[in-house]
């Protein structure tokens, strides 16, 4: 028996033993992998279903939010509100209906005028509810909302948002429509106008439609999906619709399901014939978790395990002969083929084939030493041939040098001619660059002037409105003050004086904190309608409730007194807006006048470096609005003898590039300071940075990182030439979010 045969037989026995052991290990691992895979597949199903549910709920909350915002900021009519409600769900078949409930006489103050009108209750209170007909979904019906004054669960959709002033996604419940109890969910948002609750608006989702759309398909063969509400009840069940509205899970695991909903952590438990997985998920800003239940039958696990084991066995025994084959080839390659390779290499050298390479060997045996000897002989022959080739190459290159010198002389003449043409083109490009910058500044300045003009116009209308209100309330005020006690008149005069002195407005979070603080104080003082009165006091600009305000809150004529004070406050605020707007326009025009005046100068004179920078910043701040924040750090008071227009041109190129790099929004930092015998000016922007593709060419003519048609690549070249003209130098550094251009000029005595 040959050495090659014995080697193959021994390898076959060892590989067979390891193959059987590997198959057993794979079978055990496959069981656990299949179990983990089924859980991951269940999670994927739950994730997909929860995404679709969140998507539907988010769209509903978004639509309701649009109506809420519109009604809070405007005073629509009842027909307008009814049209908005129909628009909320008419074109989206997923939603059953939309409704609104307003507090008595807080919608338009005319409830008694609408008694008997459809969509209003017996007192004229505005409570419209539009829904699709049960028999014909394309038909829209209008009814009066029900249960909103109930204090049990049926009235939660109104009472909870009223109490919490927060969004509400209610538990699934049955609602009677056309004689049929419909199982549905309501998505509600409160309507708050000037800090006061006036009603709710909401969309209803029919759960049977949600089941048909998302939960009707049976995953994993005989598995199912279900939607569990925060209360632990089935909102939708993909296999047993009869379970809708009932507690989820088996009695012994219901507490665990409730803990899973509260904590947001997944939960799994065994059921007959399989496993159930509970995957909680959050719903927007609503504080309670919902959950997707996925039931995976055990048949999925065993159906997957058999093919895995069979596949492992087939792969193992299929690879066995392949491994034997490669082992045989290995023995043949590194033993028997070595001698054949040595013979072939020697024959190639003898035939004059010096490109042949010796085979690579890892063992220092006799064959290896033979290959090394033959390789040394080949290297010496190649060295002699290479020396001869080099000599011939030197002779050819000496003849080529003369020809190249002649070509260089001709190219020099062509370059000198092209340089003259380039200077002319440079002047044209510079003029175009400046015209483009002026065009951008002019368009932006007109836009910025329109903004304060719009504010002045709006304030003028507000002043007209407040003057009419004050005029209408003056008779009452004269009568009240004439009959009031001396203390009451003093409280009124102090309050009015404080309002006239305070021009600051409280908005956003600060206003809400102030209102809540005043409301708590008024409740401690047992003031009626503390919430409404606290909102008015905060609107008047007070940060607390002093004694003179507290005395007015106790006055029986508070409503009309506060209305007069609010009108006076409105006049003060409108006058302040007009003052700020006119001051803004004055600064813009003043900056443009200064820029225009310097641009006409063409003689050298002593100028302050920071003054020339301030001229450019003034123009661009006026043009850029408040979306670009300019930070100044002028440490140096250095002056230079120069043509002011030159420095203005330099700063214009750098600042214009910065504004374009930031797309008109970001932070611009300008620093001017002394460094030894030089004055340094740094301009830093928060733009996207200089593209890597042009960083090696920054400052060269026709090198631009802007889009085609936006820049000619001449601006930085002009800035560099101006810096050089006055003996200065410049450098830069750039990365995304921070680009700095630094110019240094020698100090002048």
Which descriptors apply to this entry?
Heat Shock Protein 90, 5-stranded antiparallel β-sheet, alpha+beta, ATP-binding, histidine kinase, HATPase_dom, 15 helices, flat, 749 residues, 19 strands, kinase, Beta-Lactamase
Short description:
The protein has helices at residues 3-73, 78-89, 156-164, 207-215, 254-263, 298-350, 366-483, 486-501, 508-524, 530-539, 547-554, 558-599, 609-624, 644-661, 715-725, and strands at 95-102, 128-132, 140-144, 168-169, 173-177, 180-193, 196-206, 224-228, 234-237, 267-271, 274-283, 286-297, 605-608, 628-634, 639-642, 666-675, 678-685, 729-735, 738-746. With 749 residues, it is an alpha+beta fold.
Describe this structure in words.
By secondary structure, the chain is an alpha+beta fold. The chain is 56% helix and 18% strand. The protein is built from 15 helices and 19 strands. It has helices at residues 3-73, 78-89, 156-164, 207-215, 254-263, 298-350, 366-483, 486-501, 508-524, 530-539, 547-554, 558-599, 609-624, 644-661, 715-725; strands at 95-102, 128-132, 140-144, 168-169, 173-177, 180-193, 196-206, 224-228, 234-237, 267-271, 274-283, 286-297, 605-608, 628-634, 639-642, 666-675, 678-685, 729-735, 738-746. Strands 1, 2, 3, 4, 5, 6 and 7 form a 7-stranded antiparallel beta sheet that branches. InterPro entries: HAMP_dom (IPR003660), HATPase_C_sf (IPR036890), HATPase_dom (IPR003594), His_kinase_dom (IPR005467), Sig_transdc_His_kin-like_C (IPR004358). One of its GO terms (molecular function) is ATP binding. It is found in: Membrane. Its main location: membrane.
